[in-house]
Amino acid sequence: MERKQRDKGGIVIVDFNNEATIGTPAANIVKILLLQARANVLESLEYYNKKKSEGVTYGQETVRARIGTWYLEHQPYLERSLSKTAEQKQQYQELKELIEKDFFFSGNDVEDKDLLKMVVRLNNIMDQLRITRVDLKRQYDKTDVEEDNKQNDLE
Amino acid sequence: MKIRYIYDHGLPFSQKLAENIRSQLKRIDGKRASLVILDGGIGSGKTTLAIELMDYTNKERGLTTVSLGLKDHPQMALGGKQFSSQFRACDKLKLPAITYDEAGDFSRRGAITQFNMMLNRLFETYRGFKIMVIVCLPNFNVLDNQLFDNQIPRMLIHITGRNMKYGNFKVYSLSQMNWIRYWFDKLPKGAKHKCFSKVEPNFQGHFLNLLPGRERILDKLSTFGKKNLLKQTDIAMRGLLDYQEIANQTNRSINWVRLNLKQMKIEHVTLIDQKKMFDKTVLAALYSRLDEIKQSDKRGRPKK
């Protein structure tokens, strides 16, 4: 039971030598870093998009580098999570190859549509793994009073 | 002005409410407690809607409409005293729902505590009786925490207003009721009624009046229950006493009181339920009578 909780990041050991008395589970910190990495990608993509629209020649270096970082941030998690079915394994393999080919140490720009496709793909994976999913609340008919009671653990 | 008594879907209240009442019936079939609270001000139509809901539950079970006769109304308990016996009657007749109409019960001091005790005992004991209980109250916040902790009230139908054509209601689930109670406690005294506007209802709807004939019968039944209460209030307000009460206060037997009042030629003020009622001045007269007797008491062994 305890182990299960620890795996979920539920147990927090407080470091009393530190002034902080409330600890933050490592899983939460990583989650925030992942979101931060994603925000960085979106921000650079937005800037790239803006420059392109203005007709200014602007390189993809920042966007591509940030996509690489975003991938690396959750690479072990992705590898582990996308290993249950053959389809998932293939999904991970494709992603890995694409990232390694186009987004690391490559001086060549990719096509804009491929850049966007990559961001969408990573976004989808994050949603699939419930990292960025916001609509987690179950949708149910609120006008059914007993269903509402049930959803609120008042069955 | 044309007044409707039934909607196109064949019921005198919103269809959504019917659906929810059906889930309550399913619940009691599974031997689970089900208490539906109807709350609203005086004359808002609580009893009317309660009867309509019971008519519906009866119809769902293939039974006739609710009987509202003065002597035969097993599904309508007007006041706490009737409730237990009516509940047993419902069980015997296999009726699916019973209404407890407070009928001014709460004007008595301590009645709320008794009422809560009764409800708690009822649901602890009669859970398996498969009867849905509808309680009509002016304000559901009088119910105590234990009922809510035991998750007995399932649905609150809060009646918000009524006009000549229809009445309005809002329905809240148990979870929403708990929030209303939270706000009721939080809000200052003058703004307690705002607790309902702080919580979103699960749904809202309308209900229509009973057919004129049925409404008259209900009025008769309802006033019959309230007449006794009015009499009791009258007695308390005027400070009237009957023989029993005078005997208790003077610590003498009823016969002694009766005889002495007759000897002193003190007449009763009024007759209520064929009981002679006296005003409080009789007590002073009887006390002085007692003093006289004590002084002239020569009975017993002579004192040395």
Describe the structure.
The complex is a heterodimer of chains A (155) and B (304). Chain A is mostly helical. Chain A has a domain at 26-128. Chain A has seven helices and no strands. Chain A has helices at residues 2-7, 26-54, 61-73, 75-81, 86-102, 112-128, 145-151. In chain A, helix 2 (26-54) packs antiparallel against helix 3 and helix 3 runs parallel beside helix 6. The model of chain A is unreliable at 1-7 (pLDDT under 50). Chain B has 304 residues and is an alpha/beta fold. Chain B has two domains: 15-234, Rossmann fold; 239-295, Multidrug-efflux Transporter Regulator, Chain: A, Domain 2. Chain B is 45% helix and 16% strand. Chain B is built from ten helices and nine strands. Chain B has helices at 15-29, 46-60, 80-93, 111-125, 145-149, 174-186, 212-238, 243-250, 254-263, 281-295; strands at 35-39, 76-78, 97-101, 132-137, 153-162, 166-173, 203-208, 270-272, 275-277. The longest helix of chain B is centred in the C-terminal third of the chain and has 27 residues, at 212-238. Chain B is elongated. The N and C termini of chain B lie far apart (92 Å). Classes of the chains: A mainly alpha (155), B alpha/beta (304).
In short:
The complex is a heterodimer of chains A (155) and B (304). Chain A is mainly alpha-helical.
**Structural class given helices, strands, pairing of chain A?**
mainly alpha
Overall pLDDT confidence of chain B? 86
Number of helices of chain A: 7
The span between the termini of chain A is 26 Å
Q: What's the count of strands of chain A?
A: 0
How much beta of chain B, percentage-wise? Answer: 15-25%
Oligomer: heterodimer
Mind summarizing the main beta sheet of chain A? none
What do the pLDDT scores of chain A average to? 82
Which consecutive residue ranges of chain B, at least 5 long each, have pLDDT under 50?
none
What would you report as the Rg of chain B, rounded to the nearest angstrom?
25 Å
Report, as a whole number of angstroms, the end-to-end distance of chain B: 92 Å
Gyration radius of chain A, to the nearest Å?
20 Å
